[in-house]
Amino acid sequence: MSNSTGDKPSTPLHSVSVAGAVIREDGRILVIKRRDNGNWEPPGGVLELDETPEEGVVREVLEETGIHVEVEQLTGVYKNMARGIVALVFRCKPSGGEERITPEATAVEWLTPDEVAKHMGEVYAARLLDALETNGPHVRTHDGVRLNTMR
Fold this sequence. Notes:
Elements: E1 15-22, E2 29-34, E3 40-41, E4 44-46, H1 53-65, E5 67-80, E6 85-97, E7 105-111, H2 113-119, H3 122-131, E8 138-142
Parallel strand pairs: 1-6, 5-8
Antiparallel strand pairs: 1-4, 2-3, 2-7, 5-6
Helix pairs in contact: 2-3
């Protein structure tokens, strides 16, 4: 047997996505109901090659919700171990615009933290609830549905 990697690339290829944990002054958090799967999630998507993570968050939130945001800070890094997707989540504050239905979202809502925990899947709820804490950024892994427990 040789030590070559065969057809596998020597550098793993990961997809990088960004999401905004957009928090209003009253503590409500911006979420979308995705058109493709019907799930409630934070607004976000794949980071373009020619943009910074902060630029990507601003673009994705605006495209998916109609809300303009100012990026405050990175609050978490989340890796889907099954799909090789790394998500960077940033706490943002709204700076204008109006909520609207978009090609990506059938609904755009401002939820309380309790509503986030109740209506969203564990993986996505954690991204938003982690952003409310000041001891971040959090680094977590998951399988797409459940968070992996820490060692």
